[in-house]
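Methods, example record. To illustrate the input and output format used throughout this study, we show the complete record for M48 family metallopeptidase. The sequence lines were provided to the predictor; the line carrying structure tokens was produced by it.
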Amino acid sequence: MATFFELQEKNRKKTTWVVALFVAFFLWLGLGLDLALYFKARAHTRPVPATVYRETSPGSYQEAELPPGAIRPYEKKSKPFRPVFTIVIGLLGASLAWWELSSAATTVLKAVRATPVDSDTKGPGRVFHNVVEEMSIAAGMPMPSVWIIPDRDPNAMAVGLKPGDFHVAATEGLLLSLTREELQGVVAHEIAHIKNQDVRLMTTLTVLVGISALIAEFVARCRYHGGSDRSGDDDSRIGSIIFVIWLLTVLLAPLATRIMALMVSKEREYLADASAAQFTRNPQALISALEKISGAAGATHSISQASAHLCIASPTAADLSEEESLFSTHPPMSQRIARLRLIGRGMALAPSGG
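The corresponding predicted structure is encoded as:
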């Protein structure tokens, strides 16, 4: 089994690859458009009379006059390829990714209308703050910021990219429905996501899913009339093929990034559950919390699908099904509970007595 440090390094590499792929995607957005427009322009370039040369001496040429009645050949002189969109969109994409990532946590917390909690907060918020502090000490890491999401459905999430920018948020429904021990299990699960650096990877994916969807929607709204070209020229056909590939890439990018997020999310949920059991030494508390969360059977309306993989449970309640779906953000709740029961039995049989 991998150690925390190995998991952190693995997640760091994954995050780097995800960002590199996204920058490459932006470069392709520009390059594909440049190539499509270049070949389209070549197809519509009118042939011009070619210059005829004569050899005056070995290796030396001079422009020649055609004899009377001779037919002058024609040639196409297209403009040189200039990667204007490659540079502009590449720089724009890198800047947009950097800007979005630098404010990703704030953007997510604003989107779910979360309000901050501190040590002066009263009621369930105070208990939540204290539990986050306890679990941070148990995990040996700095305490993240604490937030409450105004939603009656029980759910929780962690978000952030670096120390000092990590946040744990829970819905009002979660704080009102769980006991202190159950809340410790849920918070330990979120703390495990931060400690394993899952949050960094999943927050990055959240931003990239959002940007991809934005670009796809923008391109889908733009109407490109390249299909009306009937010149039949090879350059025109090449330009059309490149444009079709470019268009498919853009339109399928949101689906590809979402599938990446789903794959990462499912794998990490099991690990965070196991880590939470280790932190609290009480897997039954998390089992009880997950049973209460799944018993709510409603949707967390405050949390959008783009942020679903940041939560402890699917905001759409899709994880209540017994069957694991390719497009679900979380493994089935029943399977997570079954694995936690196995962990609990293992702890009970351990020489230390659990």
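Annotations derived from this record:
The chain has ten helices and eight strands.
The radius of gyration is 29 Å.
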